[in-house]
Design a protein that fits this description.
Elements (H helix, E strand, L loop, with lengths): L10 E4 L6 E3 L13 E3 L7 E2 L6 E4 L10
Parallel strand pairs: 1-5
Antiparallel strand pairs: 2-3, 4-5
């Protein structure tokens, strides 16, 4: 993903404890809420929310357990 495709909200880096990934995330303000959607985030492949365009990706040092 190049810089031109990153939305204004930026990129949210996730750790293995943040999985399953969903948007809106708990740190987003209430006024920006939309229906919760679960996102398929895999190592090397970010996922983008279809509602608000926030991009989620795994942090480089994220430890992902087999169930996620």
């Amino acid at each position: 993903m190049n810089a031109a495709t990153v939305p204004a909200r930026g990129v949210v880096e996730l750790d293995g404890t943040d999985l399953p990934a969903f948007c809106p995330n708990p740190k987003m303000p209430l006024w920006s809420s939309h229906p919760r959607v679960y996102l398929e985030v895999t190592r090397g492949e970010p996922a983008q929310c279809p509602y608000c365009s926030t991009v989620y990706r795994l942090a480089p040092d994220a430890v992902v357990h087999a169930g996620h």
